[in-house]
Amino acid sequence: MNRNIISLSLICLAVTGCSTVSKKSAMGDFDYASKEEAPALVIPANLSEPQYKNEYQINNKINHNGPIGKQVDVRAPSLVLPVATASRVENSSGQAKIWFDKVLEDKDLQEFIYQAVVDELASEGVTLSELNADKLLYQSSWFVNDKETGWLFSSIEETVRMKFNYQFETKPHGRSVAIVVELTGFEKVNESGQTTEIDLIDKERVEMKMLNEIVAQVDLKYRQLQRDNQLLKANQQLVSLGQNSKGEAAYIVEMENDMLWSNMPILFSKYGFTVNDLNESKQTYFVTYTKPETTIWDSLWGNTAPSVDLANGRYQFNLEAIENSTAVTILDDKAQALSKDKLDSMFDVMNLALSFRDSL
Question: Keywords, A to Z (predicted)?
Fold first, then answer.
């Protein structure tokens, strides 16, 4: 199921809870909550008073208006989940807050996080408006979730409406951006028109849930960019026609010389070349080309490699480093470089071979 479809429902679920079994309260009886404090021990006058320890004595400086017994919320606290790349939380902060550190050098980090918030809200049909540009403070429109009952004739049993503030914080160097989420509006109305207030614990849980949805959106955007970059590299033209330093026709490969040199045996074994000798100092392979024979079984199973448009015989592959690329010159048995036209006629096959895409 699409994460965007269920995110608001999960937030509302954090507020409404389960309708049949409450997970807020501890299980068992709560008789202890109504017990009176035991009277002090009366010591007869002719006996010595025993020694008392006050380690566990509870003084009167406590919150007498807090929940007792069944009203005590025993749920574990909600946590911010820093699942996005280079995200982190501050344990000292009681806010729904997370920090993001710069990962993409070509993108403004604050704008990137802001766009993730906009995209997350847009998936729920919610907009983001500016409250204070100088303070980087923004506010969402209302999130609305209607709980319907009935099958043929449905009716709204309960409506939950929420809106949030989003406070950005940027370090002076611009390489770290924080976002704080605060629930600023909440309405829960049943079919009778009765409203329910949200308590502090549920408020915190809703804020944490909303922040985690934003972190997940940031993580999604990072993954999408990573996928796009991988596709770009996969489709990148690594081989082109050019010249070596002597002006001879050559294939120019966007690969470092050492890496290409070590990978050339893969090309030779796959495309019908046998290595007879090599001169590493001159970066030259001496090979014999024999056009591979293709059987009907190779055709059926797709095991055939494209054939190189060369006559059977002896050849030399000379590699030469040119800046960040490598020039590959092919010489015949008379040590004459193949012409540009010949290289052009073989380009489709050699482009595939020298990029090693079919060898991965």
Answer: Coiled coil
